[in-house]
Amino acid sequence: MKTIDSAVCLPCEDGVPQVNGLLQQMDEWSVSHAVVAPSDELVAVYNEAGNGRIVEVVRGHPDRLSGLAVANPWYGAKAVTILQSAFEQGLIGLYLHPGRQGFHLTDEIVDPLVEACIAHDKPIYSHTGTPICAMPFQLAELAARHPKATFVMGHSAWSDFCGYDVIPAAGQAGNILVETSCTTGNFLRRLISEIGAERVVFGSAYPRSRYRHEINKITRLGLSSEILEKVMCENAKRLWKIVSV
Amino acid sequence: MKKIDTHTHLPGTRLGAPPRPIAEIRGEFEGDGLVGAWIMTVDGLILDANRGNDELASAVKDHQDFFVPFCTVNPHHGAEAAIRELERAKHELGMRGLKLHPWLQSFSMSHPAIPQILRRAGELGMPVLFHDGTPPYSTPLQIASVAEMVPETKIILGHAGLDDLYKDAINACLRHPNIHLCCCSLSCGYIEEIIRRCPVERLLYGSDGGFGAGLVPSAIDKILAVCDDERILRSIFYDNPQDVLPLA
């Protein structure tokens, strides 16, 4: 079974994303492809540098990696320019982290970025699970406001929201997919049952989490091979338009 | 390697996991490689605390060699009534620790009864395990603010701050020698940082097991994914729980 990881934030050393540890883990756990985003200060402040470094990393490993762009909504029109430039350089979606970037998902300052993603037919991955700015119903509100956009609810909003808000929030907006990292296997079983396997994509949250835990918790569920293929690979392949897998 | 899980629950009528016979839960835990487990009520945190204590004590009475039961009390009953229940749980029911869950039980750590309850728990030799990691009532530093008032009582942050507040949990652990961290339900990368920065003798393993199959092995996986030092693993999985509350 092929695996696509939709949730990696490359760790940085001195502002430089470190990719070797990820590739080693991918090899060890037979992960075919990973969608990687910048982390830390590259998400919060130095967006152009972050995008540039992700472009470099992806170009070095085009069969194994695709990249997400960052653009802090507080940069206003400049953020849209940064995002469009990143798309032109080959990045395949937008990565939002409301906690790091200092905005609420419901704040209208993010709208221009969402509209740019719609115009370029690019999905939007958002970190979720962090109160008070990145909660499931806030993402649902944003998604309902932009029905032509496609959103990924990062980390299944892992925190005490798990099992309470995620499923009803996803139910409010059919343009949300839910990513599997950090939450429990038991919750994923219910999630798949209630919103459908087509709307669930595997993610590791590396380096926040590890493949050993994230893959084992899913394979232990005893899901059918058809559902596993959707969750571990096919949904992400279609979402991100990955052709190398 | 022997493993004791320091954060499990007796499923009840709330929070979605249906009630199961204690023997079945024990069998599941033993199958996952545990030699013991600290176990806490679910219903008692949401419904009636005293009744929850009775139900848990009754469930584990024939499994005292494996389960270490934690009682709960309701701080809203006031310090006197809560301490009376704590003493009943200790002396009549054989409970060995205290579990408090500020957001499920709807109390602030600034509630005036809390320091008295924690102090008495310490006098009774009962460690206090808190749910933590959840604003607005259950943050590590809120709990640490009261832990400082009761230095003789062992305080366990039951989720080591969860993913959003683990750095606060590390700070609390480093500042207060009576605070232990239970690495339960937070992500591997943060567990790795906790192991690197905190005194290893105050780290514990926990899974929230009891809510469903798979939680115990997943929680073990998280620690093994980021640590291969046998000495540290033995401390976290077995020696530290035995130091805090030895199995009967």
Search tags:
heterodimer; A: 245 residues; TIM Barrel; three-stranded parallel beta sheet; 14% strand; B: 248 residues; 10 helices; 8 strands; 44% helix
Task: Tell me what you see in this structure.
The complex is a heterodimer of chains A (about 240) and B (about 250). Chain A is an alpha/beta fold and about 240 residues long. Chain A has one domain: Alpha-Beta Barrel (TIM Barrel), CATH 3.20.20. Helix content of chain A is about 45%, strand content about 15%. Chain A is built from eleven helices and ten strands. In chain A, strand 9, helix 9 and strand 10 form a beta-alpha-beta unit. Chain B has one domain: Alpha-Beta Barrel (TIM Barrel), CATH 3.20.20.140. Chain B has an eight-stranded parallel β-sheet with strand order 1-2-3-4-5-6-7-8. In chain B, strand 6, helix 7 and strand 7 form a beta-alpha-beta unit. The mean pLDDT of chain B is about 95.
Write a brief structural summary.
The complex is a heterodimer of chains A (245) and B (248). Chain A is an alpha/beta fold. Chain A contains 11 helices and 10 strands.
- What is the beta-strand fraction of chain A? 5-15%
For CATH, the homologous superfamily of chain A is named as Metal-dependent hydrolases
* Helix/strand class of chain A: alpha/beta
Q: Name the overall outline of chain B.
A: globular
Order of strands in the sheet with most strands of chain B: 1-2-3-4-5-6-7-8
Helices and strands of chain A, in order, run as EEEHEHHEHEHHEHEHEHEHH
SSE diagram, text form:
The complex is a heterodimer of chains A (245) and B (248).
Chain A: E1 4-9, E2 12-13, E3 16-17, H1 20-28, E4 33-37, H2 41-44, H3 47-60, E5 65-67, H4 77-88, E6 94-96, H5 98-101, H6 111-120, E7 124-127, H7 136-145, E8 151-154, H8 166-172, E9 176-179, H9 185-195, E10 200-201, H10 211-219, H11 225-240
Parallel strand pairs in A: 1-4, 4-5, 6-7, 7-8, 8-9, 9-10
Antiparallel strand pairs in A: 2-3
Helix pairs in contact in A: 4-6, 7-8
Chain B: E1 3-10, H1 22-31, E2 34-41, H2 43-46, H3 49-60, E3 67-71, H4 79-91, E4 97-100, H5 113-123, E5 128-130, H6 140-147, E6 155-157, H7 162-175, E7 179-183, H8 188-197, E8 203-205, H9 215-226, H10 230-244
Parallel strand pairs in B: 1-2, 2-3, 3-4, 4-5, 5-6, 6-7, 7-8
